[in-house]
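Record type: monomer structure entry
Structure origin: computed from sequence
Chain ID: A
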Amino acid sequence: MFNTSVFDYINVLQKTADAAWIRNDVIANNIANATTPGYKRQDIAFEDELSKALRHSRYKSMDAKVADLKMNRLKPRTYTDSANYSYRMDGNNVDIETENVTLAANQLKYNGLTECLNQEFKNLQMVMK
């Protein structure tokens, strides 16, 4: 088999798009529970994990950093955001307006990531011709 790094960026883009898709579900769940007493907002930690993984190889080029990523260790993690903070007396900390803005921003991010993935595959297809 060939030892190639042609899919390194595609794999990172795919992982990031998967994290954005999961974040979309989490935000939708937050919106659905905006009136549930005691519910605490959740979010996904992924970008910080990716940034940490890329900083691990400090003196390498971006291509080398991406090639060195351990993709199986790079996973989105759900966490409860501001668990001790509440907007209302019932203990809920979901602000519906913030969630809607976050959802719109996340959808734009996901659309951009899928466009980047499509462009990467077009580039590969052009090289193979």
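Annotation 1: The mean pLDDT is 85.
Annotation 2: The chain is about 55% helix and 5% strand.
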